[in-house]
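User: Sequence recovery, please. Input:
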């Protein structure tokens, strides 16, 4: 969607996928270690997802604002 609708290069759009994969692996590793209680893992994971969604929205708004005069790639 970032590449086709917003016109971002594929490499830039791939950063979101890479971040998602790395945080998924970190969460899986943390859950498997049983270092924290399940409730703590849930709370930390939810907070991390919320922060990363907000940062992604801000980053996309700065890189490619909706009011941009350039049209997205077809």
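Assistant: Recovered sequence (74 residues):
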């Amino acid at each position: 969607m970032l590449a086709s609708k917003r016109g971002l290069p594929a490499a830039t759009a791939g950063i979101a996928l890479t971040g998602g994969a790395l945080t998924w692996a970190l969460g899986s590793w943390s859950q498997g270690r049983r270092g924290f209680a399940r409730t703590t893992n849930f709370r930390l994971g939810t907070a991390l997802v919320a922060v990363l969604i907000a940062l992604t929205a801000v980053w996309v708004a700065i890189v490619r604002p909706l009011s941009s005069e350039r049209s997205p790639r077809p």
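DSSP finds two helices and no strands in the chain.
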